[in-house]
Structure formats: C-alpha cells, structure tokens
Amino acid sequence: MARRLGRRRCSTRVRACWAEAPSRPPPDLVAAAFHWLEYLGLLGAIGSLVVRRLGQMTPKIQWANPSLRIPLVAALAGVLGLVVFAPRSVLPRLDLAVVVHVLAAGMWAGGIMALASLRPPDGWSSPQARALIERFARVALLAFAVTALTGVLQAGEQLRDVSDLWTTTYGLVLLVKCAAVLAMLGLSLAWRAGRPVARLEALAAILVVGATALLAAFPAQA
Q: What are the tens digits of pLDDT across the range 116-166?
C-alpha cells in the first residue's frame, strides 16, 4: 500500500513538472526541406545575376551566362511546397539584418554555385576563366564579410549562452554550418590557386544552405 502511494505521488510530481515545463514545438522537417529548396533557388538566382554582370565587364566573357531558369523554378517550388504543406512557415520573420544576410549570401554562396554550373570552353585554368574567378573573388570577399557579420548577429539572438552550441540541437546544427563555411573558405583558396574544386565547393555551399534551412525547423533558443 505504501509503495502504491509512493508511486502515485511520484507520478503526480512528474506530471506537475511536465506541465510547468515550457512547451516547445517539434522540429518541422517538412518545412525545412522546402525552405532548403527555396533558399537554394533564391541564392542561386542572386548568384547567377552577379556572375552574369561580371561576365559583361570589359573584356566580356560570353560563356559567363549561368541559367536563371533552374534557380527560379527551385525557389518557386519551395514556396509552393511551404504554402501547401507548411503554411505556418510561409511568412518568416524579416528585418534588415535578415534581408542583408540573404543578399550577401546570394552574392557569395549563390555566386559559387552559379560559377560551378558553368563549363569554360578551355577549362578553369584558361585565362578567361581565371579572369572571371578574380572578378568574383573581389565581390565574394566583401559579400562573405557581410554574410558572416549578419549571421553572427542572428545566432546571438537565438543562443542564450556559449554552451548552447554543444548542448542544443540548434547549436549543433549551427556548428555544422560553421564547419561547412570554413570548408568553403579553404576550397575557395584552392580554386583561386588553380585546383579543380568548383563542384566540391558548390556541394559545400549546398550543405551550408541545408543547415540554414534546418535551423528554421528547430525552436528558437532565445
């Protein structure tokens, strides 16, 4: 009898603690998948516009003309998927930092994906290809700095403490994203040095975008 009373009291306490704990929504992985598609399309479109503009500089590089159709279709598919399957995620929080972050990321990561989609007639070691890479490098340097700064500001709003980086799912995904960004920086240096790593860097960029979309699937930590 005493054991039963003890079990009931323990059960009551657990229920009370559970009721007092803040309720957190489960991660919406479906929304994250469509956000990933949306982000890829949006950043790819911005990057394609940047590369096209660089190709029009004197002397012109005629083959520097990445397609806009594929990224725009991807962005539209992502938005439609969110509308149909995750309507609550259609209108994310927008402020100046977010807009600037997206534009800068499009110029940097999107530009890398756009470049990787090109096929220079004489390869990436040709004079024209090297000239295009140098043009993009000047834009990418500033775009990366702005992307990193605004990204740090956004992460600071989500994390309560530094320990959240390894004690929360949000923080762990953020660490994966940071690692992929560092990999992109190393691959960028290798690309400028003449090594054929365009596709590998584009894959790293896709991973960064995927991590960004996955962060939106988890509850805010702040």
A: 999 999 989 899 999 999 999 999 999 999 999 999 888 888 888 888 888
Q: Of 194, 203, 155, which is closest to residue 175 (Cα–Cα)?
A: 155
Gap between the Cα atoms of 134 and 140, Å rounded: 10
**Per the structure, how many domains does the chain have?**
1
Integer Cα distance of 174 and 216 in angstroms = 11
The closest of 171, 187, 181 to 207, measured between CA atoms, is 181
Dig out the tokens for 215 from the structure. 């962060």
Residues in the chain: 222
93: nearest Cα among 158, 147, 43: 158
For residues 42 and 102, is the Cβ–Cβ distance under 8 A? yes
| Structural domain contains residue 162 | yes
- 6 falls within a domain: no
Q: Is the pTM of this model over 0.70?
A: yes
3-state secondary structure of 59: coil
Locate tokens 């489960």: which residue?
26
Query: Is position 1 within any domain?
Result: no
Range of the structural domain that residue 96 is part of: 29-215
Give the model confidence (pLDDT) of 159-218 as tens digits: 888 888 888 888 889 999 999 999 999 999 888 888 888 889 999 999 999 998 888 766
Within a domain: 17:
no
- Please check whether residue 61 is in contact with residue 120, taking contact to mean a CB–CB distance below 8 angstroms: no
Check residue 150 and give its pLDDT.
Answer: 92
